[in-house]
Amino acid sequence: MTAVIAIMNHKGGVGKTTTTLNMASALAAGNNAVLIIDMDPQSNAATGLGLNAKAIQAGSYELILGDKKLQDVIHKTDLPNLSLVPATFQLAALSSVSPDDEDPEYWLRESLEQDDIPFDYVLIDCPPSFGILSLNALVAAHKVIVPVQSESFAIAGLQQMESSINDIRVEAGHDLDFRILMTLSDPSQQLHQLVDREVRAHFKEHVFQNAIPVEPKIAESAFLGRPVIFHSPNSQGARAYIRACAECLQWTQEEGDNKDLAAYRDTIVSGLKQWLKDDTITAHADPVQFDTSVKTPVKNHPPAQDANSLKVSIRNGVILALALTAGMALALLGL
């Protein structure tokens, strides 16, 4: 049976997409067929996997509306076992769907139920707001991962999230379990320690044992279009996501599967080692570039300068400015 997991928090900037990409990649490295469905119109999941978001013609928007079948909007990535249904800007139009439409929160689930899903895991990356897109993800999901940053308003936000999940349990008629993943955690900060303790005291077994630390390599990997577990597998951030994924595997295991966390972690690490040896997997070394193909015409535009001449021009400009400043100062002293 396919496990459908929504990655959700009403608040932005807590690491939803980063968590989606790294958990999905770790699951795939553990020899699971994994699909990411991007429900965020910003399309960050595509760029986070090194794909050109602007070249995508169809994705989750068409899937939700039933205009295309699941197999028609799946894009394979160069990471083995990992595929993506990307988001496009049209997805934002669903945020203003008419309340007169019949059960719009069920559209994604109905689209997924039309065909057999050839994946072990489906991870849904949700937008940073609680609207029709998030509702679709919750109704379609079996489980929810809630990334939470250690900050002052974390607990209030979590209680609101828990209330939303409970509402979906009643209205959609299915058992929707959730786990909280502490992200951007810095144990050296007293506030982070306090929030972490409070969250664990209130939600108990609903919190992942492992927290994701503040890690420069995580931000760097996102900029380069790669999950951190592949970009920098020995970093603290990568190790934390691998451990969290092992917990996710244990949480979603089928009855009778009694593997411990170490066994799941070893399977993921073994798969990653194979990826690192695979020459067909490109480790993107260049960040996503700004689109310079469309330029605003400028009248009497001077010839373009190369990098060295530009540096010289800047240096000469600085020298001239300093000289003028010194001249003015001497003139004032003379007065």
Estimate the helix proportion, in percent. 40-55%
Alpha-beta classification:
alpha/beta
Distance between the termini: 88 Å
CATH 2nd-level architecture = 3-Layer(aba) Sandwich
Residue share in β-strands = 5-15%
Kindly report the CATH topology. Rossmann fold
- Which overall shape is indicated by the principal axes computed on the Cα atoms? globular
Identify the CATH class: Alpha Beta
> How many individual domains?
1
How large, in whole angstroms, is the Cα Rg? 24 Å
Give the CATH superfamily: P-loop containing nucleotide triphosphate hydrolases
Q: What's the average pLDDT?
A: 82
Strand order of the largest sheet: 3-4-2-5-1-6-7
Low-confidence stretches: 287-292, 294-315, 317-335
Helix run count: 12
Q: Which H/E pattern describes the elements? A: EHEHHEEHEHEHEHHHHHH
Domain AAA: 3-176
Protein name: Chromosome partitioning protein ParA
InterPro entries: AAA_dom, DNA_Partitioning_ATPase, P-loop_NTPase
Function: Involved in chromosome partition. Localize to both poles of the predivisional cell following completion of DNA replication.
